[in-house]
Automatic annotation (TrEMBL):
One Gene Ontology CC term in the entry: plasma membrane
Matching NCBIfam families: integ_memb_HG
Subcellular location(s) of the protein: Cell membrane
Signal peptide: none
Protein's organism: Psychroflexus aurantiacus
Record-linked InterPro entries: DUF3817_TM
Transmembrane segments: 12-35, 41-64, 71-90
Pfam short name (any one): DUF3817
Residue ranges constituting the DUF3817 domain according to the UniProt record: 9-94
Protein name: DUF3817 domain-containing protein
Amino acid sequence: MSKEDRSITAFRWISILEAVSFLLLLFVAMPLKYIWDLPEYVSIVGMAHGILFILYLLGGYWMYEKLGWSVKILLIVFLSSILPFGPFIVERRYLPKP
């Protein structure tokens, strides 16, 4: 496996994990906090999501340089980071197939 392939695979995993962490934060941790008064889950999931969010943005820029993406695709990647299912779409649409 080449270095470029490993970079793509790493970004693919970061994309999936970031999207899953965002969904867990929105649909599990936040309801636990506001419905059942269990705020500690937001702290745990929120920290994990924050780290993955930053890695996703850095990885998106890395892919922009490595794969020769246009600025338009880079902006789509960055904007997808604030949508619950956005990174799943980016992973499917813009990354080369394994």
